[in-house]
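Inputs:
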Amino acid sequence: MQRRSLIQRGALAGVLAAGIVPAVHAQAATRWRLASSFPRSMDLLFGSAESFARKVGEMTGGRFQIEVHAAGELMPALGVLDGVQQSAIEACHTSGIYFVGKDDVFAIGSSLPFGMNARQLAGWMTEGNGGKLMGEFYGRFNALNFPCGNTGATVGAWFRREIRTPRDFRGLKFSFDGMAGRVFRALGGLPQKLPAGEIVAALGKGVIGAAQGSSPYDDQKRGFQKAAPHYQYPGWWSGGLQLELLVNRKAFDGLTPEYRAIVEAASAFAQAEMQARYAARNPVALQQLVGGGTVVGGFPRPVLEAAFKASMALGRELGASNAGWKKIHDDYRSFQQQQLFGARHSEAPLDSFLQSVKW
Amino acid sequence: MQRRSLIQRGALAGVLAAGIVPAVHAQAATRWRLASSFPRSMDLLFGSAESFARKVGEMTGGRFQIEVHAAGELMPALGVLDGVQQSAIEACHTSGIYFVGKDDVFAIGSSLPFGMNARQLAGWMTEGNGGKLMGEFYGRFNALNFPCGNTGATVGAWFRREIRTPRDFRGLKFSFDGMAGRVFRALGGLPQKLPAGEIVAALGKGVIGAAQGSSPYDDQKRGFQKAAPHYQYPGWWSGGLQLELLVNRKAFDGLTPEYRAIVEAASAFAQAEMQARYAARNPVALQQLVGGGTVVGGFPRPVLEAAFKASMALGRELGASNAGWKKIHDDYRSFQQQQLFGARHSEAPLDSFLQSVKW
């Protein structure tokens, strides 16, 4: 790692050629390549990796440099996990949800239908069994996982026609990610495979009737509001999208203990920063969407109940054929229920009062 | 700073005496003293400062050492801000709520009745005007402020007799912190000044009829459940207690840019860790309290409405005599209302559904 970095570093190449290696070693830069699954245009999603890299640079006086590459620059958006696993890159910034094709367990640490919100998931990962269980899982892919951003609960998804009953899903052509897509299919929808860049246009033309966005802030940037009139909440297909910094194990082990601690803390910084950014910007974007004519409406309870039932059935179905899923998912849901018990007697009634009282 | 640290550091003192100063300087330790407002027995509150200090140590290979002192060890629990302001110590770990006697504005970044929850506050501090406004305010006290832990929304407070109507507050002797205490007084309660260590015993003996705890986890440790039977939610006197790392400006300016970034990231790490710890442990403690016979019940809506009205009146009253309060509090409440608009269409309905559905 260090040797390659020295060679890549122009300023030092001349010094190396002059042969004064020992003196140089003390200042040798560690240089990592990080591939993101996100395009630069998704500034908060992509920006979290940049914040992480910038913090590492600041904390090391530029001696540990992390080059952040957007989706497609070094490798395709969804090739980044392979890149880390095969030691082609030292790190990637992504979300497990994109890799359910390899193993459904990836979704658990990232985003599950009717899943935990950001702080509940952090509780499970930090104090519950999530850290150990997901850490072992990522170990199979030669990677260490660090939380590195969470969008928070989204508002909803975009529909050309409002969903009023569970039957409205039948025959509906949609574009939804992994787990959510399977729930929509169970409800009678027809999944359509579309490149990410074509979803908004397909929705606008009626090629599909529904599409998942990610957050009001991002959805507004992508122009969903011009493609479909209905934005329905809540976004039950995810408690909030958790992003992850995945680091190649060998690269991590090759770091000094100081740099390892710096990677962890820089990731925690980026995790908090992204949450704060979405928390601040989503309501503003939502207000603008409403002002622009988007119809923001709730899913009727029977729709939520049908989706919940289908989601729980999917969870059981996956458990029947995937022992790893069953073990981790059972633990996750048990922790989640404890969290719901707590929230019902603390934050939820206060939030609910504050939302309903006349200010 | 560095010179004093060298002198304090035993191992280096001999080296210094031998006169080889230049060689030593490269490895010189920076040593800070941090005074906490919390006792060691409050392991999560106190522990956040320890996590912060440990992370700084790890990231610097022990070259930046922060000695964490519990309340009363170096100075009284509520003397720590003076300590930082007067440069007696480099840093403290506390919460602004304890200093409303100096200026009510301290409460805004810490905990307000019917105030923002942890993530809303983080949004205001990171992306809203909170960072700038509270930063300027702390500047008047010679300090920089970093978020360093949040308990999350608490469950409630302890009452010997259940509160059923706003009139039940009349004549009630209580022990509540600054802002909350003033709201209780406005509702007819009679504030009692008690040292923190005597509150539980006073409640048990009926010297007071009500007391504020901090969280189910901490309250259980302190034995509130043996002193009063009623634990009423939600804890409207605070959206969640925000803790702060306050750093003496001169001490911070004396750090290298690397160490400054490390202080910021270590504090972010500790902030996230404390939130995760409380999120995980509070529901467990609450379940145990219920199992042990504590009566957990909600405040009736007229009680919440009376408390809300009194809290908003207090906010306006303080604004009339404190221009700083008015400016910052108005901005805070405006941000909060935008947050509530967002939550109403995203997390709140999903949480509410998950809490009410049959699993």
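Residues 1-26 of chain B have pLDDT under 50 and may be disordered. Flag for discussion at group meeting.
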